[in-house]
């Protein structure tokens, strides 16, 4: 029997109320995440791409129990994170760690960075108290810093160094799932590659289930085994890296890939397809939510909301043009 | 991965508090304020060694003597040496500062933390309570507390302490509201820290700077109010050499024996001035990215 995935997200939705009007009443809802199913196995790196505001960070935050879903479940190692009591949740948290987008703000400015990493061990009560400081020194060395860096305060270190420490803080707990929310987007390009290499190395070494969130397709192509493309709360395409980059099926994915600047002189004059204005997330179009920006939309797209369905084995797409006989998503209240 | 290592210069990093002390010593107003506070502390601790006379010893033959080599600050209407009384008075001044500030800072900080970090209901209840306290004029609230507990040095201090709670609560609440949205709070949460651990381990240390600054402003005000209470007969009772209480009888002789009012008045002025100036210095050192 196949072992259960480290992370399984089932029918996950996160809705935020939209307040407006004279008395600040709830005038509508925005679904940051709208019925997402996703699973990541041990040792697998899943890249999650999409425009800013498409809900990818919200999805990542639910996976580490920082954000409570409106509906659906987040199963970590077979246990529903949001059905656990405080004690059990605390123990589960050890297995799901997060690397933040902005390394400059994710450390307590009043603590040395070594103290912040040590706090992980103290909080989870791992190792004998006497062994914790050496363990922190070890992990500092493992992420390419010197043990002396432990006594520094966050503002004394560079973004790249801090992100290494962010990775160290997450990995010192030996988690099974690591969520990285745009881990290199705040870094200089020259440092990005170093941090990405480090992450890839550590992912293999610790056999991490990695949820790698990014808007940068090049970065995702480098890190991920499988790629999920997200559009306004939905996964619209999910495939292996090779299949997705070689033969994208969803028009949105195609547009994203075409927008990546090409080094190929033959393609230099190709105009990138223009996606047009993004829709108001509180008033998404009927049927397929991408149809207002889709150049191949047809009548059915306005009526039926396509669900994610396999176009080829292992390559799922939510598009009527790609999977004409696929299921549709029932309209929700 | 050695190529990735961006080396730091190998200078020894000073601990944070050492840097703060260094910056305080470079700040002129902090040094002046600190010197005055130190003087008050020395007087309070070594009062029996410094004061030439018993502060309570009455000498009817030597009443209302002007300042002289025997009595540096003169004597009061029953012949007590004013210099000795001023020196002993520092004890009461500092006691009032410590007690009043402890009451308002501890309760106010706790309420502010709970209001800022708690649910909307907790926040609402605490802040409405604070609003009610704030709706009363400061002095009226103090008078109410004294009226309930009866006038004495201790009730005066308690009253001033209680009256100071709302200021701390509001300050800490707003600071907490800012801090709890920070990434590093989520950082602690992801590690498994409980809400209580986050509140006292991560949020509280990060609101300490504004707390210390406010403390240095609010404390001299509280001390002044406590002296005013004593002057009104609602705080320290005679013959305690509390400066405010010393002014009460002396004011009768304002025109015939100016020194009897001047000595405690000047002492109060210098002490309050010192604390205020120290507060200014602390703010300059702590506020800009501590």
UniProtKB/TrEMBL annotation, chain A:
One of its GO terms (molecular function) is ATP hydrolysis activity. It is a peripheral membrane protein. Keywords: ATP-binding, Nucleotide-binding, Transport. CDD domains: ABC_NikE_OppD_transporters. SMART domains: AAA. Residues 7-257 form the ABC transporter domain. It comes from the Bacteria. One of its GO terms (cellular component) is plasma membrane. GO terms for biological process: peptide transport; transmembrane transport. The keyword Nucleotide-binding applies. It is found in: Cell inner membrane. The keyword Transport applies. Belongs to the ABC transporter superfamily. This is ABC transporter ATP-binding protein.
């Amino acid at each position: 029997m196949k072992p259960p995935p480290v992370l399984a997200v089932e029918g996950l939705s996160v809705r935020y109320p939209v307040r407006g009007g004279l008395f600040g009443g709830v005038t509508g809802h925005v679904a940051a995440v709208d019925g997402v199913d996703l699973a990541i196995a041990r040792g697998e790196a899943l890249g999650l791409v999409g425009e800013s505001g498409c809900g990818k960070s919200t999805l990542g935050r639910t996976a580490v129990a920082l954000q409570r879903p409106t509906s659906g479940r987040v199963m970590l190692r077979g246990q529903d994170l949001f059905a656990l009591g405080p004690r059990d949740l605390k123990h589960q948290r050890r297995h799901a760690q997060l690397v933040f987008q902005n390394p400059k703000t994710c450390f307590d400015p009043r603590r040395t960075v070594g103290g912040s990493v040590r706090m992980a061990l103290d909080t989870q009560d791992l190792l004998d108290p006497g062994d914790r400081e050496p363990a922190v020194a070890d992990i500092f060395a493992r992420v390419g810093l010197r043990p002396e860096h432990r006594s520094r305060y966050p503002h004394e270190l560079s973004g790249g160094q801090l992100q290494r420490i962010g990775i160290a803080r997450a990995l010192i707990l030996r988690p099974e799932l690591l969520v990285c929310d745009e881990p290199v987007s705040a870094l200089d390009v020259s440092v990005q590659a170093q941090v990405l290499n480090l992450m890839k190395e550590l992912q293999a070494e610790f056999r991490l289930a990695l949820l790698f969130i990014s808007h940068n397709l090049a970065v995702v192509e480098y890190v991920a085994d499988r790629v999920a493309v997200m559009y306004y709360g939905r996964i619209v395409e999910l495939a292996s890296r090779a299949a997705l980059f070689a033969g994208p099926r969803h028009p949105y994915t195609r547009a994203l890939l075409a927008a990546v600047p090409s080094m190929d002189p033959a393609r230099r004059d190709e105009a990138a397809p223009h996606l047009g204005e993004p829709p108001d997330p509180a008033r998404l179009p009927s049927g397929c939510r991408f149809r207002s920006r889709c150049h191949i939309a047809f009548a059915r797209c306005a009526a039926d909301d396509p669900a994610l369905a396999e176009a080829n084995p292992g390559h799922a797409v939510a598009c009527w043009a790609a999977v004409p006989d696929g299921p549709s998503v029932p309209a929700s209240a | 991965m050695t190529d990735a290592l961006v080396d730091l210069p190998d200078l020894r990093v000073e601990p944070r508090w050492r840097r703060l002390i260094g910056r305080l010593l470079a700040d002129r107003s902090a040094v002046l304020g600190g010197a005055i506070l130190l003087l008050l502390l020395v007087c309070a601790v070594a009062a029996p060694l410094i004061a030439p006379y018993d502060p309570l010893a009455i000498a009817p033959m030597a009443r209302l003597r002007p300042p002289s080599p025997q009595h540096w600050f003169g004597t009061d209407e029953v012949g007590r040496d004013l210099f000795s009384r001023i020196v002993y008075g520092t004890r009461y001044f500092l006691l009032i500062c410590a007690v009043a500030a402890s009451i308002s800072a501890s309760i106010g900080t706790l309420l502010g933390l709970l209001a800022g970090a708690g649910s909307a209901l907790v926040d609402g209840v605490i802040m409405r309570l604070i609003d009610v306290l704030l709706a009363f004029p400061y002095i009226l609230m103090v008078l109410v507390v004294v009226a309930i507990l009866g006038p004495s040095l201790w009730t005066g201090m308690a009253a001033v302490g209680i009256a100071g709670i709302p200021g701390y609560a509001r300050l800490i609440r707003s600071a907490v509201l800012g801090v709890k949205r920070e990434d590093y709070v989520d950082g602690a949460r992801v590690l498994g820290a409980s809400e209580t651990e986050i509140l006292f381990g991560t949020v509280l240390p990060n609101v300490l700077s504004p707390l210390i600054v406010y403390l240095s402003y609010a404390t001299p005000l509280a001390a002044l109010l406590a002296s005013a209470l004593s002057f009104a007969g609602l705080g320290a009772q005679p013959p305690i050499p509390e400066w405010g209480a010393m002014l009460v009888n002396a004011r009768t002789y304002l025109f015939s024996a100016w020194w009897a009012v001047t000595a405690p008045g000047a002492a109060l002025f210098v002490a309050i001035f010192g604390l205020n100036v120290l507060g200014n210095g602390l703010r300059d050192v702590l506020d800009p990215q501590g």
